[in-house]
């Protein structure tokens, strides 16, 4: 379920990415926020369905409590999230990487392994446990 707060975060990210020209880099181009939201929810439901079939444990998104991310930001100068998704991305981090190239319509960077891991970042090991290990 998507909360009203998360929906506002998603719409703001979508509008920012559109104004920044990131939508021009995505094929096929986004039609609307609503159509992208439907695709995002469908992708999440498909992942959940595959998880149930594979009988893996705890594949759902894991969001760190806000007091923990605030501490990381304050004391460790964390400015990035790796392996996040729009559904669990903390908007207080100015940069995040998603495994889904389509998340560029929300301002995500794609392929966390294609860029250097410089500085401090939080990594969400939720998509492919074997890859993360």
Task: Give structural notes.
There is one protein chain. This protein is α/β, with parallel strands linked by helices. The chain has one domain. It is 40% helix and 9% strand. The chain has four helices and four strands, in the order H-H-H-E-E-E-E-H. The protein has a four-stranded parallel sheet, with no helix packed on it. The protein starts with a helix and ends with a helix. About 11% of the residues have low confidence.
Keywords:
133 residues, alpha/beta, four-stranded parallel beta sheet, 4 helices, 4 strands, 40% helix, globular
Average of per-residue pLDDT values: 76
Structural class: alpha/beta
Gyration radius over CA: 15 Å
> What letter string, H or E per element, gives the SSE order?
HHHEEEEH
Q: Please indicate the count of domains.
A: 1
Amino- and carboxy-terminal Cα gap: 29 Å
Strand-residue proportion = 5-15%
Tell me, what's the shape?
Answer: globular
In total, how many beta strands?
Answer: 4
Low-pLDDT segments, ≥5 res: 48-61
Give the strand order, joined by hyphens, for the main sheet.
3-2-1-4
Q: How would you sum up the major sheet?
A: 4 strands, parallel
Please outline what is shown here.
This protein has one domain. The chain has 133 residues and is an alpha/beta fold.
């Amino acid at each position: 379920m998507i909360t009203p707060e998360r929906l506002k975060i998603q719409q703001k990210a979508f509008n920012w990415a559109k104004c920044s020209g990131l939508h021009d880099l995505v094929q096929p181009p986004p039609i609307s926020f609503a159509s992208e939201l439907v695709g995002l929810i469908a992708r999440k439901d498909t992942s959940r369905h595959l998880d149930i079939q594979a009988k893996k444990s705890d594949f759902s998104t894991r969001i760190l409590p806000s007091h923990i991310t605030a501490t990381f930001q304050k004391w460790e100068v964390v400015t990035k999230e790796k392996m996040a998704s729009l559904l669990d991305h903390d908007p207080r981090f100015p940069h995040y990487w998603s495994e889904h190239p389509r998340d560029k319509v929300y301002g995500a960077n794609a392929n966390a392994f294609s860029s250097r891991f410089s500085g401090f970042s939080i990594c969400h090991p939720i998509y492919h446990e074997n890859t993360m290990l």
